[in-house]
Structure formats: C-alpha cells, structure tokens
Design a protein that fits this description.
Elements lengths: L12 H31 L8 H18 L22 H29 L5 H34 L1
Helix pairs in contact: 1-2, 1-3, 1-4, 2-4, 3-4
C-alpha cells in the first residue's frame, strides 16, 4: 500500500481506482475471515450463529474491520511532539498503529485456527469455538477502533 500525501481530489483516476480496488479487496478479506470463523462456530452447534442473517452480520463486521483498520491514513505531523521521545514509547499515532496491528493479528490467528479445524474435519467444542469467536470479534473491534481514531485525528487536524 502506497501512502499518499496528496488529497483525494488531487489524485489521478488510476490512483483513485487502485485505492478503491485495494480497499474493496481488504473488505472482502475481512468478510471471508469472518465467514471461516462463523463456519467454525457453526460446526460447534452454538445457537449464536444459527441463521444466515447472523453470519451475514458477522461478515459485514469483519469487512468493516479490515476496511477501516488495515489501511490507516497518514497522520499529520504532531507539533506538540518533541524529539527525542520520552521513554521511547512513541506517539499516540504509534499506539493507534499498534492497536490496528494487534487487531489484525488476533483476527488472523482466530481465522487460521478456524480454517485448520474445518480442513482437518475436527469437531468443534462449544467452549473452544466461543474462544475463537471472541478472539476474532475482539480483533475486528480493535481494527475498527484504530481506523475510526486515525480518521478522526486526520479530520481534526484538517479542521485546524
């Protein structure tokens, strides 16, 4: 993913099309991860995901997580930050980036475990399936939160 310092309106049609295609691919990836987790939980015969509407809602949530949380916008320069960083922990933008990365990692691990279980034909236990589903849900929520926070910071900086 190439980061652009120019605004959306000044980008070429090819650049805009590439960005839309890339973000749509990320959303589809998130939706398919959610589908695998839902299939894993469904094999455990948990009433949580027993309808097509519930699976579709989970897929939308996963798509939103990958759409918002993976391709974070560049942060504007923080005029309040003084180098060197105190205690070398980083800035708030770094914390948002870590939130996004941790959410992506958690959702991906839950998906890999789900796919592994499905491919090997393992019978999912209810407790294990719920842990997988909760791990995925927490990861997707972390992605969404990071994406929302990053975009709010950009909007607030542009308003100044």
């Amino acid at each position: 993913m190439t980061g652009h310092r120019t605004s959306w309106n000044t980008r070429s049609i090819i650049s805009r099309s590439a960005h839309i295609l890339e973000r749509t691919g990320l959303a589809l990836t998130g939706a398919s991860c959610a589908l695998f987790v839902a299939a894993h939980v469904g094999r455990a015969e948990i009433d949580l995901i027993d309808t097509a509407a519930a699976v579709f809602a989970i897929m939308i949530y996963g798509a939103l997580g990958f759409y918002l949380g993976i391709d974070l916008p560049r942060t504007p320069p923080d005029r309040r930050m003084h180098l060197p960083l105190r205690y070398r922990w980083g800035t708030k933008a770094d914390a948002v980036e870590l939130l996004s990365a941790a959410g992506t990692f958690l959702a991906a691990v839950a998906t890999v475990v789900s796919v592994f279980s499905i491919v090997l034909g393992e019978t999912a236990r209810a407790s294990g399936a719920l842990i997988i589903w909760l791990s995925w849900a927490v990861g997707a929520t972390m992605q969404i939160a990071a994406g929302v926070v990053a975009r709010r910071k950009i909007e607030a900086a542009e308003a100044l």
